[in-house]
Amino acid sequence: MSKIFTKLFVVSAIFTGMFSVWSILYPINLGDTLSAFQIFFSLMYGWFIKILPVIIIGICIFFGVSKKYRDIRFGGPDARPDFSTFSWLAMLFTAGIGIGIVYFGINEGPIAYLLAPDGIGATNTTKWEAAKTAMGIGIYHWGISAWAIFSISGLSVGYFTFKHGTRYLPGAPIEFAFKGRPWAKPVAAVMNVLGVVCSALTISATMGLGSVQIASGARIVTGQSGESTVMWPFIALAVLFVIFTLAAITPLKKGMKFIGDVNVWMAIGIMVFVMIFGPTRYIFEQIVSTFGTLLTGFIPKNFEMYLFVDDPSYIVSWDTSTLLWWIAWTPFMCVFIASISKGRKIKEFCFASMTIPVIFMILWLATFSGTALLDIIQGTGSIGNYALSNPEETFFALLRTLPFSGFTQFFTLVLIVFFLATTCTSAAVSLSRMTGPDGIEISHTRSAVWAVLMTLIAVAAIYATISSGGIEGMYGIRALATALALPYLFFYILIIVAFIKQIRKDESGN
Length: 510
What we know:
- The chain is built from 19 helices and no strands.
- By secondary structure, it is an all-alpha fold.
- The chain has one domain: Amino acid/polyamine transporter I (Up-down Bundle), CATH 1.20.1740.
- It starts with 6 loop residues before the first helix and ends with a helix.
- The mean pLDDT is 85.
């Protein structure tokens, strides 16, 4: 029994359980409190959060091109990957982005166009200039920044795990690299607890977000509406709970590899469909334009602080909040990435995981967010209205403008379920591993407990969306997901420092 209920498991489960109770008894109060916490810290430290990705990307490029480090293979020179490159990237992508590309991917452009300080409301800005800026903001949020944040965290934990036999824990690099320092062990312990709770909150927010979108999709597909569908988000959450709990207690190779591969192929399928039956020429022109915007505007965007804007709400709720969202994902992502990366070289972490997913995101954003922008500028504007009033329905609204909408909407509904199942399964497995006695063994009991706790907190996310509605509900979801990301951010930086310190020491022979 002690091997199942370790100290780390008990402490982190208690803290997570407190949020669970809070979410059940006072869901709106939880959302308001965490929103205030997020706004305060985002305004205070937003400047640092925005420049951090540039620093991380620089570190990744250095290790990826350095002859001294780039060919270091996890597990030793003779180790070979457990998964094909496609399956490896598919699992990284679906665990790291998942439901986000369906929910936020299509809404990024319209919301940036309508609400960003340099959007259509900016002085002397034309519609096409505002649209180009909006697409640049979208790929800034979902592009290299996100994958650099994930890559360096997975690289750090994976290096220590395979090179020095440390546990699959975010605090393990700190404890090992700074061993002998009196502060190392307690700092690592605090980081482990904070990382587990942070992961649980982030995944809970994602579960709530996805459940609302599943319920909306089900209403659209079935043609049902009214009071009879009010409880559908909670029913969707219950069904999701059963699916990902069963997936979490099956062997990793069977569960994660299968749904990871299926997710990617389904996402490619729906994207190609819209490319063919949507405004094809415009979409491919948008792909080229967005790629150019990424090349020319990524670095300047990280240094844009909007110093004299009257209303910083968009900056707090989107720019800094999105980057914090990625930081909040790293505690479980670093463990999950490390656990599936045996046999991978450092240069694969630094380049394959930062380029291939980004290329896919350019295609995805240009196809869906770009088409939504086209509707705002030259069409009816109805899709843009959904982005502000009912963002969970925007994707379905776009599909209704194309042929075979009945089939594609049902197909998308299945895709969302699979995306959510992948993300939640990887989270439950990672949390079980992180809170185990050796940081390696996965207990079905621990996985089930984490599944229950995260599902309970997800209730608050659903309440936030239903009670506030529209974009305000989305802000509440983001607050729940990123509440603990700011304190965790300082530990995240310490992980990177520990990795750099230790790999230099190892390769110098000292």
